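agent> Task received from the user: take the single chain below, predict its 3D structure, and emit structure tokens. No templates, no multimer pairing.
agent> Plan: (1) validate residues, (2) run structure prediction, (3) serialize to tokens, (4) report one or two observations.
agent> Step 1 OK, no nonstandard residues flagged.
tool_call: predict_structure(input=
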Amino acid sequence: MKRYLLAATAALTLAGCHKDQPAPVYEMVPVQRRDIVVTASAAGTIQPILTVQVKSQASGAITEMRVQTGDDVRPGQLLALIDPRLPKSGLDQAKATLEVAKAQFQNAQTQLARMDTLLKTQAVTQTDYDNARVSFTQAEAALVNARSNLSDAQIAYDQTRVTAPVAGTIIQKNVELGTVISSPARDVGGGTVLFQMANLDTVQVQSMVDETDIGKVQPGLPVTITVDAFPNRPFQGTVLKIEPQATQNQNVTMFPVLVNIYNPEHLLKPGMNAEVEVHVGQRQGVLAIPNSALRTQRDVASAAQVLGLDPNDVQAQLAAAPAAPPARFGGDTAQRGTTLGAAPSAGGGDPAKPAGRDSAKAATNVMTTPDGRQITLPAGYTPEKIRELFRKTMSGGQLTPAEQAAMNQVRSQFGAGRGGQGGQGGGFGTGQMRRGGAFASSYIVFALRNGKATPVNIRTGLTDLDYIEVTSGLTEKDTVLLLPSASLVQAQQDMRNRFQSMTGGGLPGLRQQTGGAAGGGGGTTKAR
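)
tool_result: status=success, residues=528
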């Protein structure tokens, strides 16, 4: 109970002192240059790009194990030895068979040469010569077969030495010393997997990116990866590709994004959980202000009331002030070859020609919005008349049917009707994507100029949700005002009114005394 009483006392103290010396409701922040980085966050698991299963063509028991998990191996390096006795016996038999085949071939070759000589002197018949030639051909075929068998036996013997097919790291060992393995050439199950190897010089992360951010992600964008094992050491990578097929998990649509990470020290291991931040936009050393300083036409009136300004005067200043020129990003210009803010010539004529009666009439029927766009006014209405109608609407005045129709026509061109009722829907979009990942929008800020709060039209660019890039409208010499939201100010006022209605202006048994506390409104409360 005491805690609630103290809180109520403090609130009433501030409310009572507000009438005499109001505390500042804004914070002054200078416009400064800073770096703005916009990222799309995702999570994934470290995976090797290339994984190889090592098997042996030979069958038998493992007699020697040369590597363990985690060892880095080079191509051709010996990994394990398999019992070579049977392959060695087959190799010896093949060698002996080859020697016999060589002797038989030489003998058949000699016999064929002798029969050829005897046939010429007609000492033997043609049949005897043909039989000698067949024997020579058979001996020659036996020699070729013996050499082939020797080659196969040599391969079978060499296959008892399991070597690394590629350079990489042993990430898994499935057998131990003495394990009997089967050959994939003889086993319908595919044979025994001895090791799993992976090249960890470059690893990969398959991260799931929400569909709301996937439009900003492109192959080649830089990526920062962090893992729990090295929380203070970020790793750098690049986006390799975006998978075309989305996946859904609990009604959330996600797209797999493959990221390659250079890993020369092999610090990143397969299976590590990684946090991925794709740098979808980056600005170095640009003018920036806090996002909380931004205002739109929709809430500029409430901001003016917080600052103690007349909303009608603020609207008149904004309407009379020149609009900030549209931002340019990588050659994407709003109007090429035209002076920004100038009305186009009537009928698309040559702007170099002297302005005639038609062009002067066209200029009076064109109004420049705060975001630099040109809109055509209804017949019989000038920009001054439209601004007067806006001020009339803001002050609660009633429009005639003709005036209301004119206002609706104007709103339909620059979007004022989207913001809400009463003409408070500003003519600024919420931001549209430009080339290079930049966002361009128009807003209003209150800057401190000549000691007074002044509304200023600005153009903005990239934002990281804390700060936003200012492309035009402000300089480093300016100071912007951070204002509380209209809902916060209204809630504070409602609380003060509620306490005052309950206590009649103060709590019974308490006497309020105003003091000279710094910052205003810092009175003290004492008990009787």
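agent> Step 4: summary for the user.
Residues 294-328+359-488 form one domain.
agent> Done.
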